[in-house]
Design a protein that fits this description.
alpha+beta, two-stranded antiparallel sheet, 12 helices, globular
């Protein structure tokens, strides 16, 4: 009977290569960054994302929800670091790069299902649970503990070869983790480019981000009028923000994007101001299977009005 990850690891690595996964690693369950997360919540830096304060015990130790869990498989899947050539006012120039293609939740979930299917075949007694930014689990902490990078000054997971333009998916398993994580050095050093470039000063000294000051939070998660400290400093961002990644020196040679995250032609050909004329049906059609739907039509129209004054 299969009980350890090492017994299935070559197979998982093969699936990862076939599915366009950039890196794969494994970590134990306990979140070594839990005290920092606790401090972040305690200081109210989750803003109106109240759901992040729930299930804190489960977030710090998933075995409290899944007693059978013994390990976490973490994968990195790259998205494009480059914007496609387009007119200055094109929508593609005003939304974060991660949202230029298909919804990453769906894409990574399909990949993780491939792992589950094979594990079910060769280790029928094993159990799994998928997370793609969808539950009480710190994917960045799991990936860092799996040796896939370090948590940078901007709070992003950074890989010394591929930078930070990638998504993280995680799979809890009932198999024991006996995969040695690669040793990863923290290579931010004394660099403060991301801190200096952030228009709203959202990056905190402890390598977390104050959501209440973050452009990504404001344009995506916040409902109602934009706070003045965000709305007046959007720097052209109508959905999300890449500024702290754009200035990061570790993003000089990012990996080639997974095909699912190729920028959509419709975004290149649509002026961002067209959103102001949209009805719900127009919005739903243009952003079908896109993470932009998270901001909703009203939110996107609010953001466009703010960047256009």
């Amino acid at each position: 009977m299969i009980t350890r990850l090492s017994e299935v690891w070559p197979l998982l690595e093969r699936i990862a290569r076939d599915e366009g996964v950039l890196r794969i690693g494994a970590s134990n369950l306990a979140d070594e960054h839990a005290p920092l997360y606790d401090e972040w919540i305690g200081n109210g830096h989750h803003a109106s994302m109240y759901y992040l304060a729930k299930n804190r015990d489960v977030r710090m130790n998933p075995s409290q929800r899944f007693p059978w869990a013994r390990s976490i498989i973490a994968i990195l899947v790259p998205y494009s670091s480059e914007r496609p050539h387009a007119p200055e006012d094109a929508l593609s120039n005003h939304i974060a790069r991660y949202a230029l293609g298909d919804d990453y939740h769906d894409v990574l979930d399909r990949i993780l299902r491939k792992f589950e299917e094979r594990l079910t075949q060769i280790a029928p007694r094993s159990k799994t649970w998928r997370y793609v930014d969808t539950g009480p689990l710190s994917d960045r902490a799991a990936a860092a503990q799996a040796g896939l990078g370090w948590i940078g000054r901007n709070g992003m997971l950074i890989h010394d070869e591929h930078g930070s333009y990638f998504f993280i998916g995680t799979l809890l398993t009932s198999l024991e983790n006996d995969i040695a994580a690669a040793a990863v050095a923290d290579r931010c050093g004394t660099c403060t480019r991301c801190v200096d470039a952030c228009p709203t000063g959202a990056i905190l000294p402890n390598r977390t981000v104050a959501s209440e000051d973050c452009i990504s939070y404001g344009t995506i998660e916040h409902r109602g009028d934009l706070p003045a400290n965000i709305g007046g400093h959007l720097a052209g961002n109508a959905f999300g923000c890449d500024i702290c990644q754009e200035v990061c020196p570790w993003n000089r040679a990012p990996a080639e994007a997974h095909p699912a995250f190729t920028a959509r032609d419709e975004y290149r050909g649509t002026p961002v101001t067209d959103l102001l004329k949209f009805q719900q049906a127009d919005f739903s059609k243009l952003f079908s299977k896109s993470p932009v739907k998270r901001a909703k039509l009203a939110g996107m129209q609010r953001n466009v009005r703010a960047i256009k004054g």
